[in-house]
## 1
Amino acid sequence: MLEVNGLIKRYGKQNAVNNVSFSLNGGEVVGLIGPNGAGKSTTMKCIVGLLRKTAGTITLGGHDHLSVAAKKLFSYIPETPHVYDLLTVKEHLQFIAQAYGVRDWKPKAEELMQTYDLMDKQDKLGRDLSKGMRQKVSICCALLPDPEVLFFDEPMIGLDPKAIKNTKRIFGELKAMGKTILVSTHLIDSVEAISDRIMIMKDGNIIGNDSLANLKAAFSDGNESSLEDLFLEMTKDE
Amino acid sequence: MNEFALLLRKDLYILINNLKLILRNPLRLFPYAIILGYFGIFYFRRGNRSTSTVDPDQMKNLQDAMEQVSPPDVGQLTVVGGLTLIALAVMLYLLFRATKKNVTFFTMADVNLLFTSPVKPSKLLVYYMVRSIFPALGGSLIFILYGTAQLNDLFDFNLLNLTVMAIGLALFFFILSPIRFLIYTLHTKYGIIPQVKSGIFVTGLLLLIMILIPGLMAENFHEGVFAWIASPWFDLFPLVGWSRGILSFVEHENGWKVLGLMGCYGLAYGLILAMVLKHSGHYYEDVLESTQSQEETKEKIKGKRTASESSMSLNTKKKLVFKEFGTGATAIYWRNYVHGSRQDFHPLFGLYGLGFAGVGALMAVLSRFDWFSHWIIYGYLILLIFIYFMAGISRVNVGDLKKPFIILIPDTWASKFWNLIRLDLYQTLIFSVMLIVPTVLIAQLSLGLILLFPICMICFYLCGFSINLTIQLGFDEGWDRKLVRPLIIGSVLIFGILPSLGLGFFVAIISKQFVYGLLGISFGMGLVAAVMLHVAFDVISRLEFKEM
């Protein structure tokens, strides 16, 4: 479903993403983890077209990632929620429904607002929402078009415990529905349970890309270690 | 602990680090070097001329003779009075703003690090209040250099009078901050904002009377209007008058007067400081919010943070129900439409538009009864065209381009671009027509204006929009933009806008008809807007999203 080949993103003389290649199969859930500044968000932003890649090719469903056809296939939940000051919560969903041509969007929107406790906030303006509320709106906007591929960039930041629990549940439901998901996060336990595969990034490179069991087998010398231990072991400075 | 030494050391470190940053990237100084060169050219040219052509004795004799024969100079009175009036308006506005929004001398770093440290609050306040003169002085010096560069042929500028003038201007802007802080302090302690507002209102009213009475007493209103506020005794009026007295040192060359007025400032400052210290109490429990909002404003100016989309909104509480307009990029137009509905009472023609159109109609009525020349209306139309040009320049700072949706929405860039500017074009067109039709019909102007004015408005708007879009998207780094922005604006101005205006001016002079002048401008600006739109459209597909 997603093919990334030789992706490079350079800022000045520094490579934020250093010639990485990977792919995501349809229905696969992949967790992208790494320390601060590893290049996770940059990689994701290059894939969804928010940043211009310096080199490499990216295809989604066989289409170039910047094409209209590719954009119809995915949704993106950014690290920082961006909402319009003068649009209400409900109008944000109406906006997305139009942008993605979602028919009969209202029942789906209500269901999402119910899940994220936004029903009583549906007529509130974006400028009056707290950061957590904005993040919830951002997630609802991404889920409304029912895309084939979802890119979550630190989706849990700013959410309350109930919303975190619901997001984890939605990950499970999306996985059951056969959606392809790439989740970048620092909350390792949130991806440990649902990920088919883990990608670990450090200094712009992918230093591990396999199922959790295989990664453990390869790096933890047969000890019973958690993904957190494995992550700390793999990303420690030499 | 010696708090002043501590604070001074902190500022010295900041200064040194700033200098190091400049040394690491000296190109940052390039725009300033250009500005200095620009000033230098004017001073140098004047210096050459003054040594070769003018005989000072002859000049003095000529001036003496002129003073004896010429009547009071209405032109000079108007210039002095007009500038004084502007300064009074600025002063009243800034004081009025202090009743709405507090002034703060601090940064968030101060709030987080100094306010929580064992530094005596009063000393912190005194240090920052005194320190605030330096930015005011620096800004004033640049402004004075800029202003006097143009007037160098008329006055004999030297280091002394330039310094005095800079101090005069700096003191005016410097003293306003402590006054505003005092207002805030008194308000938080005694809740006196209504009284302060009344005081400012009454001062404004008195000043209005001081302008109206001599105007009505004079033979011609415009000749008498500034008789009082432009007279020498007005130099004693606090702040505006004091600064005027100091600024006009280049003319009167009376050092004692300047020292006396500076002394007035010193006394006023001492009094304000004493009052602030007496009434401020635990002031920094209250300044967190204002410091935060000031920092946000600074970030917006630097472009690090998106300007608020909801500022100046008149209708945010309105409950709206809009049907869908279509799919894909049309959603951007729908979003702008909803946004516009909350900003004003109608997204296509609102209260602001009605106000401006009303002014046009009023001018037309006055012109019809020969109270106004047609050229005043033409001036107003040109002012509106300029405002729309500036609106175009600021448009890309707000809204869609700062959100990821513009990139993520599955549609072509052509469609996104069109939907991005669609509402603005409709608004501009409708506003222009609503303004120009009644104005032309009432004032019996040329009917051609009904066609040409809207075209001109749209061309200038698109031109401003394209310039800023190109700069924002085409150049990554902040200082790149700082360098390139004046370059691009300058180039478009020199090779596009000025020739168009020149063409219009030329045609207007020959034909003695404003409408033909506007035809010339429309023709030139149509070409400029087309070229700039082409560039902007090419650049928009390179849009990158930056997390703020």
## 2
Amino acid sequence: MSALLELHSVSVTLRNVAALDGVSLCVSPGEIVALLGPNGAGKTTLMRAATGAVRHEGRVALSGADPRMLSARQRALRVAYLPQRPQSIWPVSVESLVALGRYAHGAAPDRLSPRDQAAVDAAIEACSLTALRTRRMDEVSGGEKARAHLARALAQQAPLLMLDEPTAGLDPAQALGVAEILRKHAANGGGVLLSTHDIALAASAADRVLLLRQGRAIAEGAPIEALTPAALESAYGRTGALMRVGESYVAAFH
Amino acid sequence: MSLRISLALAALGIAALTAAVWLGPTPLADPFANDEATRTIVWDIRFPRALTAWIVGAALGLSGAALQGLLRNPLADSGVLGLSGFAALGAVVAFAFGVALLASLAALAFALIAAFAVTTLGWSARGPASLALIGVGISSLAGGLIALALNLAPNPGALADLVNWTLGSVEARSLNDALLAGAFLLAGGALIFFAARGLQALTLGEEAAAAIGADLPRTRLLVVLGAAACAGGATAVAGVIGFVGVAAPHLVRAFAGHDPARLLLPSALAGGAILVLADMAVRLLPTDTELKLGVAAALIGGPVFALIAARLASRGGDA
């Protein structure tokens, strides 16, 4: 099966600074890949290059196609992208927000076909928002907002989910809930690319990690193999270690 | 829900139009009486005036709702953002240089310039206040340029009326004026209608709207053209009338919710009803010289605008 996302020697220059420098990455169906690295390492820039939102050198392919040659709608059918700090500018209901995920399928939040409605219902259920679906976005908590935005991305039903720090601001139980949702998406044949600062969560949830520093890839592979103390120190500038504890991982720095 | 609110607002508009035909400085026992005087008062004076007010109000309400959706900002409207000021400038330039026939086209062209400028400058404005400030700049520029046009005009004396006209009024407007503003409203409304889904998508902010598949350049172009047509037509016929575009969507949100697409039609209908009622009020006020509608709108709308802005600011500034 062909890759959902391929980056080959991709470089991005923002304001004369190399934000991404010759990075290659592949996300295949059934796979969860986590982007790790300190703030400013290039995680968000990589995602923006993947959607064609920033000018890049090198080759980017979304399900085989150059994202810059695709219309916004065609891109949205290939990748559901959740930006960092997602916004809900107008306080619409949780359900209306999730329904915006059906935009590329031709639906408006107040005119959903049975298929659109089923996708919205499934996304709302997957994110445990059933009880909140009629609540306004300004009446729900930060964690609930984050889940509503994740549900919007799920409702898009694109093969690739690309999430920029989806667990920021979530408590540990909610973060694990997100990881379970991502695993389910991968188990159903989808692919996931997420960025996170939660190294332990990435190690538990992801099949592979890509560790970035100053726009360059410094380690890639299965989490426990790639995230060696040397790689962590090189990325974060602190002595760190990833340890296995039962079914999950703990990351510690000092 | 949205349909029921639209029907209620349409009924309110019709009631307001009927009342505006009936009520006035000269009391009429029966506005549908078949004598010459009544016919003249009703069909040559009051009805065209009230209809013009409704169309101008609807155009301002619609352009306000569309601009608010596009710029993700509840303080946006064609008056605040300078579209009306620039449209007035266009009309003044046309009059001042003896091409009065082209006044409405000039108003449209100048409104377009302002719309492009303000949406380009304000596209990534952070928070409602910074966009309003960009609007202040553009409006002030329009004011300055109107003064300059009067300054340089070949026959400034004859232009005193024109300055008076820019204050905003629907007094003594004919059915032709109503038709002109109506044609601009229809054209602008059609353009904005095609942008409605894009406005909905912008609820998620610019980046996520693009991510769900919205064609943002198209949405932006449609709204800029549509809002400029609405504001240009309204201003060409009635001068500058501010704040209807802020007030109408603001009032409608309380009943119709916040979805920017579902606010468009109710905002237009509310704007129409508001302006007919406001015009009726200025006609019925026992003043020696009739208060200008634009002046009345500013007297009521200014404080309302300040209150909305203050409420937004107290919520942290970012709507």
